[in-house]
Specification:
mainly beta, globular
Amino acid sequence: MDSIIAEPLTAEAFAPFGDVIDAAGTPDRIINQGLCGRFHDRARLDFGPGGRAGLSVFRAEPRCVPLALDLLERHPDGSQAFIPMAATRFLVIVAPDAGGGPGRPRAFLAAPGQGVNYLRNTWHGVLTPLEPPGLFAVIDRIGPGPNLQEHRLEGRWQVVLP
C-alpha cells in the first residue's frame, strides 16, 4: 500500500482543487463599529445551471490514521464547502482528474479554524474529521439531476500524518 503523507493545508498548495476558508492575514474590511474584521469572499462558490445554494449540517464520525483511502467522489454541477462548527482538525483528500477518474491523491491536514471549498468537478475524499464532534456546515448545490460521481479505489492508498 502506498502512503500519502498529509501536508499542511495552505491556500497556495490547495488552489488547484479549491479554496481554503479561514481568517488568515489582514481583514479586507473593518465593520460593526470597528469591532469586527471581515475576511471577504473567501470561496468561489458555484451552483451550476438550475441550482441554488443550500446550507446543510453534517455530523461525521471521527476517523483514525493511518486511513485506508477507498473512495473518492466529485460533484460535476457545483462546488461544495465544508466549514467545521468546532475548532478541530480534519483531513482534506483530493486528486486531480486523470481521464475521467482520479489521479494520484494528495492529503492536507486542516488546522482548527480552517474550512475548504472544493471546486466543481474536483475529486475529493469523504468528510474525515480526526476529532469529535465531527460537526460541519456544508454549502453546496441544491437542484435537479445527479450531482455525485463516486470512484472506488482498490485499497492502494493510505493517508498518514507527518
